[in-house]
Amino acid sequence: MRHFGSTTLIGSSGASKTHISVVIPHLNQPEMLGRCLASLAHGQHQADEIIVVDNGSATLPIAICTAYPGVQLLQELTPGPGPARNKGVIASSGDILAFIDADCIAAPDWLAAAKTAMSDPATTILGGDVRIAYADPDHLTMLEAYESIYAYRMDRYIAREGFTGTGNLVVRRTVLTDVGAFAGIDVAEDRDWGRRATSKGYRIRYVAGMKVYHPARTSFSDLFRKWDRQTAHDYAEARKSLPGQLKWVAKTLVMGASPLTDIPRILLSDRIIGPRDRVLAFLSLLRIRCYRAGIMAWILVGKDPEKMSGKWNRPPAQ
Q1: Distances (CA, A) of 227 to 58, 196, 220, 293
Q2: Residues 206, 154: contact at Cβ < 8 Å?
Q3: What is the pLDDT of residue 183?
Q4: CA Rg, the chain, in Å?
Q5: What does the pLDDT average to over 185-190?
Q6: 20-215: which CATH architecture?
Q7: N or C: which end of the chain has fewer CB within 10 A?
Q8: 33 touches 198 (CB < 8 A)
Q9: What's the pLDDT score for residue 236?
Q10: Predicted model pTM
Q11: Which residues of 159-173 are buried (b: 16+ CB within 10 A; e: fewer)?
């Protein structure tokens, strides 16, 4: 189990049950961080504290953070958003921790919805709705159409896979202390933490009104890097057993043809409107599934998946 070390978590006892600390990991996204902080500043319910943890940016976002009174800026040089979140947790004082990513925009009622849900003492972990932030709502790009349907489906992750994304996560400190710290760059830290929590009997509650907006990726290469990382993590689990390896082979074989079975989902989705956007979503899906089939086969012929999982971040500081 991963713990928060020997450091005592500030505020783990005696804090008000409505005291909320927001933790934001950041890496080389200063403009997006500014948008995120602005959305929190204009929220219906204000956080009791906001902690930004920079994970090794070329330039620290000092000016952006100081533009918002009360925002703390810390540094964590161990690569990965998980270690950055852990640093923020240790420095925080709230008994409720709310996590959002630097490239997300919080809806005005994000924290208000979280506070309302957490007013029930039986509620321990919340996962919210993540929608795509469109550059132009009247003219979606291919990736905006695709990700509107397929990306960040926290409702499905919670119901089917026992985790929710850490970019829109609210949890009681006592639960976080019990489950342990977020993992590092070598695993999918949101899935890892969520499954550790559910294995201990905690229930993740999906709150549709707890909404944040995430920009779609701007290029297929960005999305391919995401699938490189996730595929490597998935294979690390699959190769632990013979049934897992056989399932991997079967999934590789059907991946390329799988877009055809998703046509009804694209046609019926309420997350996009109009035939143009549905066609764009299908064409994007076809390209992505073919890419995934290729890298899954690449791994099967003996290539090193670890080379894919670490490409998205820089190596640890020397």
Answers
A1: 25, 23, 10, 11
A2: yes
A3: 94
A4: 20
A5: 86
A6: Alpha-Beta Complex (3.90)
A7: C
A8: no
A9: 83
A10: 0.81
A11: eeebbbbbbbbbbbb
